[in-house]
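Technical note accompanying the year-one report. For the benefit of new consortium partners, we illustrate the data format agreed upon in the data management plan: each record pairs a sequence with a structure-token string. No post-processing was applied to the example shown here.
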Amino acid sequence: METAQALCADLYYPGCLSLERKQAAADSLASWSRPADMRAAYSKRRWNEREDRILPEHNHPTSAAEALSRTIQRCSLRLWRLRSGRVPMPAGDK
């Protein structure tokens, strides 16, 4: 929602040419705030070469998850992809 608010603020700035109902919707969106118990939307965190080098060193998803601040499932899947060749090993580690 925060991203939608920013986009809406760019499109429906004060004094812009717009339909009344669209401007009213934009105004109501601008006043929205995230409730305390509502978690933010997931944003995908890509794997980088440093993490791809660290992951095989741990050789176990549980310890790698702690070291990389990722879930055990994500580490397990990435480790499998590295070992099976589905994703290339980082440069210099082949």
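Partners are asked to follow this layout when depositing records. Helices lie at 2-11, 20-30, 49-58, 61-68, 72-84.
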